[in-house]
Amino acid sequence: MRIRGKVMLAVGAMTASMFATSAAAAPSFAVANTAASTAVSAAPQQALDVIRGKTRCFSYSYGDDGTTSVTVYFHNRCKHSRGIKIRVAQAKDACIWVRGGDFDKKKFKGARPTVQSITEVSHCG
Fold this sequence. Notes:
Layout: H1 2-42, E1 50-54, E2 58-63, E3 69-76, E4 82-89, E5 94-98, E6 103-109, E7 114-121
Antiparallel strand pairs: 1-2, 2-3, 3-6, 4-5, 4-7
């Protein structure tokens, strides 16, 4: 508790000094900075839909709105090796053998690739 209190006190002192420094320098460029931030925030930003799931040994996730590629991230939560089979529309399917406790990713390229299914298998081949 003591160290945490000292760290919080040090962080508070640093932020207070940064605010004091930035408040003194703000009037010289405040107008230009406001215009630049308005231009940047006016651009539309798309939210990436992340799909997450689990099988018996694997947890996985991937983004849903890929236009030229989709990357599937996976983690083998079991102690033994297992295979994960990923079926993707508009791209070649993959079967990846993953050791126990390991994690990796696989990128699929193609025209509008979409993940159709992710299954756990006992062997690849």
